[in-house]
Amino acid sequence: MRFDPSEIGEVLEMLLFRELDIRAVTLSVNTLPAIRPTVGDTLAALEEALEPLLKRLRPAVERVASRLGVRIVTVRLAVSPVSIMLEPIGKAEAAVEIAKHLDGLAEKHGVDMVGGFSAFVHAGVSRGDAALMEALSEALNSTRRLAGFLNVASTATGVNMDAVRAAAEAVLKMEPHAAARFAATANMPEDVPFMPGAYHGLGLPDAVVNIAVSGPGVIEAVVRNMPNADVRTLHDAIKRAAFKITRLGELVGREVAKELGVPFGSVDLSVAPSPKVGDSVAAILEAVGLPRVGAPGTLFALALFVDAVKKGGAMATSTIGGLSGAFIPVSEDAVMAEAAREGALTFDTLKSTLAVCNTGIDMAGIPGDAPPDAVAALIADVMAAAVALDKALGVRLVPIPGAKPGDVYDLGGLYGRVVVMDLGKYGDIPLARRRGTAPPAVERLKKG
Amino acid sequence: MELAVVSVLGADRVGIVAGIAGVLARHNVNIVDISQTVVRDIFSMVMVVDMSKADVDIAQLRRELEEEGRRLGVMVGVYHIDVFRYMQRI
């Protein structure tokens, strides 16, 4: 097979100068066989189930990265929802012990993050769920690599306001580094390679490999080279770039799965940013023609971009999974963070963008003493939209102690610089204290 | 054939092609295709090489080529052909 020098040049430019890399290889493992009635036995069984795979995970990923010459930024593990493992034990102290144990296993084996310290409470709270929720803030505060979510709403059941409230209160008890590893979510799919959404779903085999791609820099360069193109031509060019980015994910996923001897799960088409310069989704939107992300036109630009990414990516992999849209985590995207600091990007803008992307409100800072009502109500807003639109959305807020809107807190690494945003002037919101579960939308009835 | 792409980029000087090709020859790696240009004193070269009879794996070859690149003051990248096959061909 012959390649034109320009074809080789294009790929080299993406890899060398446009920050094209694989954001995450996530090994998803069924840990339910490790359920035991006591915490000591559970920890031993967990280790027995995970160690044989974990020993091989990092070396397998490194072999593939080295053979192909492609950077793989993070190696991750997703386990079955820990709330299920807690069902027979039902104690918060056990949840904290499991959390620390998973964190330790990850550190020992060079795994950057572990997802699955999670519970599904969209229609009610079971014994295991209650134990996990009670332990949530302590578990995340006392670990470095553990991630989790509370799924507090679903299209099928509606929005559980008790769980929304619990999520808000848990977040406010978390230190910034811990809050960055937690989200309140709706409709979480089973094969997400991104944290904190990753967990091993009930419909999956014992182990699978899921892939998250990166590459906003590639698309930004494409858009910048077409200043006079009409929007359809631009859409087509983004689609082609998204295809190529996703194909790299497909290749890496197949190779890692082969190395590990487990099935290949899916590629999440989402183009994820990082705090590095030249790796920003917001910069793509600005290149499409915005003076600043957040300006009028933001929704249109994002919709154009997301649609092109989905269509290009859909052709590139036969196993699409995860969230597959656009990610706009505020702190993890240098341009997005700057727009938030300038006040161009507000919670209202972020709420509007969730109509066309799969993020919701992600990695936005709030004051450490934010009113619980306001936090719960903000989560409820996003959850209501997820139910009405029948899509997966999340809220990831980072409380910064002693901070006020406009302040910046550096979390470091891929998390970036958290900008504290204005939650508005209403701290007392009686709605956020009402209990119960809001009914699902008529969307539910269409499913039978 | 076990193909790989070798890219070399940096300030132009005498001996870059010889240096890189020397490492390849030493490990029995055959150059299948080569394109090389100098624009405004920036040297750029892309080689497609066959590693099927090589006495090292791609990781070891990369290490040695990078080392040679450092000596020559150029940036060397080594990529498996599958990356290009996946991204440029359906």
From TrEMBL, chain A:
Q: Name one Pfam family in it.
A: DUF711
Q: What is the lineage of its organism?
A: Archaea, Thermoproteota, Thermoprotei, Thermoproteales, Thermoproteaceae
Which NCBIfam families does the annotation name? PRK05313.1
Q: Which SUPFAM superfamilies would you find in this protein's record?
A: PFL-like glycyl radical enzymes
- Tell me what this protein is called: Uncharacterized protein
InterPro entries xrefs: UPF0210 (IPR007841)
Native species: Pyrobaculum neutrophilum (strain DSM 2338 / JCM 9278 / NBRC 100436 / V24Sta) (Thermoproteus neutrophilus)
UniProtKB/TrEMBL annotation, chain B:
Mind telling me which Pfam families this protein's record contains? ACT_6
Q: Where is the signal peptide?
A: none
Q: Known PROSITE patterns for this protein?
A: ACT
UniProt domain ACT: residue ranges? 5-80
Stored HAMAP family: UPF0237
Give the family, as the similarity comment puts it.
Belongs to the UPF0237 family.
What name goes with this protein?
UPF0237 protein Tneu_0912
What species is this protein from?
Pyrobaculum neutrophilum (strain DSM 2338 / JCM 9278 / NBRC 100436 / V24Sta) (Thermoproteus neutrophilus)
